[in-house]
Amino acid sequence: MVKIFKNVAILEGISYLILFSNMLLIKPINPILYQTLLFPIGMSHGILFIGYIILASWIKKSQDWDFKIFATVLIASLLPLATFFIEKKYLKNA
């Protein structure tokens, strides 16, 4: 389960960066391409985000996380690049 969470954490971080770059780089240059890419990128990111939260809740006990670590893991899902940090720092047992 931890290995799956590590993969989801990395993919969620990548999807966040792609969604963010789509908003910042593509929208001003080509609004039509932005609209075309927004739904599939946004849907992928949303599914990965929900999966990240659910998996974090499931593996909380197996990783022996206290509330502070668990809250840090959950907050990391809201910040760009933070899931990469979480994957390296808190998921050592996979």
Layout of secondary structure:
Layout: H1 2-29, H2 31-59, H3 67-76, H4 82-89
Please provide a brief summary of the model.
By secondary structure, the chain is mostly helical. It has four helices and no strands.
Please describe what this structure looks like.
It is a single chain. The mean pLDDT is 89. With 94 residues, the chain is mainly alpha-helical. The chain is built from 4 helices and no strands. The protein is elongated. Helix 1 runs antiparallel to helix 2 (31-59) and helix 1 packs antiparallel against helix 4 (82-89). It has helices spanning 2-29, 31-59, 67-76, 82-89.
The sequence of SSEs as H and E is HHHH
| Major sheet size, sense and barrel closure | none
Number of helices: 4
What is the helix fraction of residues, given as a range? over 70%
Outline type: elongated
Q: In whole angstroms, how far apart are the ends?
A: 9 Å
The low-confidence runs, each spanning 5 or more residues with pLDDT under 50, are none
Strand content: under 5%
Oligomer: single chain
Number of E-type strands: 0
Q: What gyration radius follows from the Cα positions, in whole Å?
A: 15 Å
Mean of residue pLDDT?
89
Structural class: mainly alpha
